[in-house]
Specification:
homodimer, Rossmann fold, 2 domains, four-stranded parallel β-sheet, 15 strands
Amino acid sequence: MAKEIPYKIYLDEKDIPSAWYNMRADMKNKPAPLLNPGTGQPMTAQELSGVFCEELVKQELDETSRYIDIPQDIRDFYKMYRPSPLVRAYCLEKKLDTPAKIYYKFEGNNTSGSHKLNSAIAQAYYAKKQGLKGVTTETGAGQWGTALSMACAYFDLDCKVYMVKVSYEQKPFRREVMRTYGAQVTPSPSDTTEVGKKILAAHPGTTGSLGCAISEAVEVAVTNEGYRYVLGSVLNQVLLHQSVIGLEAKTAFDKIGVKPDVIIGCAGGGSNLGGLIAPFMGEKLRGEADYRIIAVEPASCPSFTRGTYAYDFCDTGMICPLAKMYTLGSDFIPAPNHAGGLRFHGMSSTLSQLYHDGYMEATTAVQTDVFEAAEYFARVEGILPAPESSHAIKVAIDEAKKCKETGEEKTILFGLTGTGYFDLVAYEKYNNGEMDDYIPTDAELAESIAKLPKVN
Amino acid sequence: MAKEIPYKIYLDEKDIPSAWYNMRADMKNKPAPLLNPGTGQPMTAQELSGVFCEELVKQELDETSRYIDIPQDIRDFYKMYRPSPLVRAYCLEKKLDTPAKIYYKFEGNNTSGSHKLNSAIAQAYYAKKQGLKGVTTETGAGQWGTALSMACAYFDLDCKVYMVKVSYEQKPFRREVMRTYGAQVTPSPSDTTEVGKKILAAHPGTTGSLGCAISEAVEVAVTNEGYRYVLGSVLNQVLLHQSVIGLEAKTAFDKIGVKPDVIIGCAGGGSNLGGLIAPFMGEKLRGEADYRIIAVEPASCPSFTRGTYAYDFCDTGMICPLAKMYTLGSDFIPAPNHAGGLRFHGMSSTLSQLYHDGYMEATTAVQTDVFEAAEYFARVEGILPAPESSHAIKVAIDEAKKCKETGEEKTILFGLTGTGYFDLVAYEKYNNGEMDDYIPTDAELAESIAKLPKVN
């Protein structure tokens, strides 16, 4: 064991980034703009500001500022749980008997249990600054909803959360955490919105999806005075806020004089992956360094690996702007499995463009393999990982095993986005051997992809 | 805000203590010895080693070594989650508008969700070193059981956990965490042991207690070849291991040049409190410094404040050695409330002696006040606290409010022993206004205290 590198590389408070890094500034091919579904024209700032907070609209559309300053109030909040540790997985390496050096950036040491708080506090801050009464949102696994509830409690904002029904049922305790932080939580689809009623009529008995919940939350935001909608993934602004993950990881690596060879992150809407890879991708885009970057998605919801790169709705209700992205079609509702926050039909436009341009790879993992890796990891590294994060663990372990075969001493970094404390129903299923590996058929995917909007 | 002190005072890996501190070495009046219930004579090392691991028996009986070296394997495990942060509660101070400076030592940043892992890994290590097959234990809130499961997974030991029935029912997910780490979990009292059957016959429909579960776990350990019993609190050895909490806190305070005035910890069996106060109490015992030390217990299980200082059984089944302690009687079964790990009828002998000798104070808090403090804390400091820890939060907030009245700038340290992720049933009750404040009557306490063993 290389004793000179500690198990946990902690940074000082002053090392919390003072600015977010905006990958788009370094992209030659910028991500395609959001389109107005009515006109087919790029959404203007004015159009977007009916749905989103003004300052966040600016960030959404800003393709040129490489760095955007983090307001002091947000940095003060970050200090409560950041810098997050970069961990050297000595015990995992030893157990795998691999020459690979494995590191993970652990974002689960806060009550939301994930990285989501990084963007939630920023979005709540700008809503407060704009003098709003409150915000609405959707949540899948519940991590984003919890994070936003915490952020709204901190700034004394009202918080209405539409929670994907399957998660609401699998994770009853998530609801109570959000309530403890003062939020109002509704299972989605619900009959509290017009779009919810329509979805329920079209898909009776549906277990819901992020796409449905987004539609409901947006409707409530635009029909209530003093409210705006906030989103925990997919958007450019979210990837921007999440860049603190990668920036800290990079600072920590620089501190110990190490450079990762492979960077692995799970991918749902892309917020964690986009944040983790940000500064590394920046170097790659500028031709300063090279990294192998791997997105891992669930085999049950494979937007990168089996989707189409096209304009699509971000929501099932088709009331949101169109985004160009790798998508399975906004009508696609994945099986009620346990990938939680990775059940979104599309993918961040920024990441989609980068993937399209060959700057990163993508792969999938089936559910039982993911939980096998999760349990293996928990027993050797102590931390009970979230199912989402465990997609990255699975592929990191595979890469480390390859190194054992080849004898290569690669340095692997993966994002451990969160903890699995609220995923015990899923762990129970796995422990009881009751988990299955649903993979959509080509015909199923073709059906939902065929319904892409006409703009393409 | 005093910007020079960061929100989180992190130590380096090398600052993890290399030796545990043994308070008994500095006590003029040593804690009374464990007695053999049959003979009324002090338990010998030989007698104890039928139940406990040999090395742990040595530590249990060692009243003279001020420091005991921490084996390297245990320190390596500590590196996965220690040093734990000492946090300056700036947001809480601001919200309370108090001149007090509030700090907490946060032990919840590991999957067991509490400080229990500090002793679990030590006990598992010594069991492995002795060549045992496995260990048995009891768990109340489930934190100790989870911690021990994690430690046993790490050292590849079998782990049998008897879980207090009320917790087993309130916290179904705790069981799954333990299973994920490979443990076998049985609700207690159960019909898998002779003593369990006896308790069930005497108290049909009982929701269980730590005392019952201890009896069952001990029976299984002594009747199975290659097994020993391990305990997560009360014992001298446990307080010894937990001294890492206080030692790190002291090092962190020394680093920033601060000395706490008041030290507050919740008290069930005493493991967290004994660990948190250890080095500070050492200075007090040696006359080098003075600190006000406050133990907070639930009003539903008030051993310090309403118990008797006498020899008693540690378990309900009366098969364990007798310990001299503040006790409510081993027959006392507290109401099925949500104090979780604070439901033990007795208290560490070491802490009992220190309390008896006037080195510390004790107070109680009722349940709804505790949850009110918990929710208040969660909303301003972000962390969802365990109900146990929230007893300390409640009194820390009270002390800070007193400072506001008097204008005193006291420095308050409290132990934030763990997180409340598995306590959402309790939070839900509180959120719904369905929680009551059970306090035992004098008659109830007199009845169980009247049954103390004859040795007194």
